[in-house]
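Take a careful look at the sequence and tokenised backbone pasted below. I need to know what the token row says about the fold.
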Amino acid sequence: MDKKYRLLKKFYGYSSFRQGQEELVDAILAGRDVFGVMPTGGGKSLCYQLPALMLEGLTVVVSPLISLMKDQVTALESIGVSAAYINSSQTTEEQRQVYDGLYRGDYSLVYVAPERLETVGFLSAARHTGVRLLAVDEAHCISQWGQDFRPSYRRIPDFVSQLPSRPTLAAFTATATPEVREDVERLLGLRDPLRVVTGFDRPNLSFEVLRPANKLECLCALLKPRKKKSGIVYCATRKAVESVCEHLKDRGFAATRYHAGLEDIERQRNQEDFIYDRSTVMVATNAFGMGIDKSNVGFVIHYNMPKSLEAYYQEAGRAGRDGSPADCVLLYSPGDVMTARWLIENSGEEADLTEEDRARLQELDLERLRRMQGYCVTGKCFRAYILDYFGQEHGEKCGNCGNCRAGVRVEDVTRQAQMALSCVLRVREKLGYYVGQTVIGQVLTGSRDKRVLGLGLDRLSTYGLLKGRSPAFMRSLFDTLKEQEYLRVTPEHQTLVPTARAREVLFRGERVEMNVRVSAVDARAEAAGAKPARVRRERSFEPTEAENDLLDALKQLRLSIAREEEVPLYVIFSNATLLEMAERKPRDMDELLSVSGVGTVKAGKYGEMFLREIAKYAYTDIQSK
């Protein structure tokens, strides 16, 4: 058997590679630069970890967050691989021990932040040890046109130029548009790289967008049936994180929090509580998660809309990393757009950017925001919308998102659109200025709000033309008019202004169609947190009651081992591996080794314990039959 296959089984427990992995591994082993664009959970880390075990010399992994380094090193050590990390969370003595190990040649891999490459101490150790492979994770961070630009990534080529010999370069990312991919190759100085883009689709993820009247109540309703699952709730601001986390704890959920305003000690403690499943819900800003190697995240809920589809897909993609079905739900409200716009327009000045580049970057961020808002209000398949954005071909419907499950019909709303556009103009004539969507909606539905009455808007000819229409219908109508560019929203005051296209509807009878969910979820159903339909796994396995009992027992065994060894649950075995064990009920070590995710190292450490647990239930099952 080829050595790489032996190591793949020994350390990772797999008998075959996932899509794109083998080509990347072979190219790296041959000394060729590579650039891999693979979805979260697609196995990027294996593409550089496996070659590191086969190459002479050191593999340096550039990683953007401390959390990733610790998780990856813990997982590698659990399977018998010598690895280390150096970062600011360590004491001076801990760092000295790692440097001593580097000089002795103790490690196959070392993880560092890009800033570490600029230090004299690390450069000296790297020059002495001999770097054979430099792997750049989250490589999109090098591009100022990407969503997570970090200027320190730009100095990676300087580090490479100071080494005695140029190592093979391997760049990886999960979310990058074609423009960003070109930027990464150019700025890293990749030489004739093997480019592997395995696609952005994650079939095991189910996407949904809800527009609840009360987000907190809807969130609690969504979490209630998921109490036994581990998940992340993303909020746009620190203030929202604090209030949402406090509310969830008051309602009895095992929640913790994470944002940049917390002390380092508390952030680290809260993160470990989530990683080790002491807290099942992490409420966080986008400061949490990049590179979090936790495979059993069963759901990601966005309490607020992110600023871009890149950010949303990266954050949502932290669910279902082990291939199990997982839910990605976004709770949308128009106010989210204003918050996101404010964050874009008030972000700190990026280093090393000219005023011209800074202006262009903000323009790109606002365009990303527009596309993100389009996702929230689209009537088409959510998965199709995402794949369109990243330039990947796809079918018309996925069958596993909120819009596909509900079904969508096309409704002619030309007459209502004419009323809405006319109302915008009439209000402008009356007041001498444009107003926002809320006021226009109040006029159209005949509201007796004191502002409407005080401005005399109840005397307009358009007042009450859409009386009786639900708030959901009015939101959808305005979303349609904005999405089809009959109305635009001014960035300064968020007012509605007709575009030139509005004349086609008002005076030439241009038809306006709106997508409406056939079985649209009303506000009460949304608040009840109806559980999205599940996508079936590749292997068709619906657990029996006995198999569910066995699965629970295996999870309990895993938990006790993890607590004893002080490691995250997924370091022992992933949920997907336990699920296969419960299905197949291996009777001996050979059968256990045929389970995906069980390598010879882990079988040697934990195999007998899991086989004994399986034997109890397998024997009971046979007796009952």
Summary: Residues 210 and 331 are 5 Å apart (CA to CA).
